[in-house]
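Researcher: Sequence recovery benchmark, item below. Answer with residues only.
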């Protein structure tokens, strides 16, 4: 009986530490030192939340840059990939369909493969550049202007060596609307 009481006490203690104290400490730290990102980087424009800088969302109109595909339809609740193997026929068919949207050119991997979380808000600059022609035509703007916009929005490797250069799709599309309205 003594072992059972000790086990219950340990269970309650660890539940409080790992379920309340630790998450609360991390949240307070994040709010104190990273307040702009602690709540997902929600972007307010015109007094209205238009999206989150850190969570990918779907854009499908031709006048916008399309994000990386999502295996979870950009729903942050389940967050995850498809778990399909490279040998999966379903994955190959899905990749062909996704790649076909770009006119049969060599498509960067981040436009045909979903990210591990399904919520990646970034594209590689190559994936953005491949879309410049479509966006320019839809907006009635010179392609060189759209390419210049992508160049200006590209973020370098973090701290000069971590990760790869990237472009935040939401921020790029917001800048696109600001410079070249599409109504």
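Model:
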């Amino acid at each position: 009986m003594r072992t059972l009481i000790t086990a219950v006490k340990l269970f309650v203690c660890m539940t409080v530490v790992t379920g309340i104290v630790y998450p609360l400490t991390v949240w307070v730290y994040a709010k104190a030192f990273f307040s702009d990102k602690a709540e997902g980087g929600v972007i307010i424009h015109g007094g209205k939340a238009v999206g989150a800088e850190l969570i990918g969302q779907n854009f499908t109109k031709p006048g916008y840059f399309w994000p990386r595909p999502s295996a979870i339809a950009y729903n942050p609740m389940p967050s995850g990939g498809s778990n399909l193997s490279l040998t999966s026929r379903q994955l190959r068919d899905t990749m062909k369909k996704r790649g076909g949207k770009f006119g049969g050119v060599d498509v960067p991997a981040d436009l045909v493969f979903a990210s591990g979380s399904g919520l990646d808000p970034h594209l590689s600059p190559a994936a953005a550049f491949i879309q410049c022609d479509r966006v320019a035509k839809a907006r009635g703007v010179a392609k060189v202007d759209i390419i210049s916009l992508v160049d200006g929005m590209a973020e370098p490797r973090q701290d000069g060596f971590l990760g790869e250069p990237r472009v935040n799709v939401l921020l790029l599309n917001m800048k696109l609307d600001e410079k070249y309205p599409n109504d």
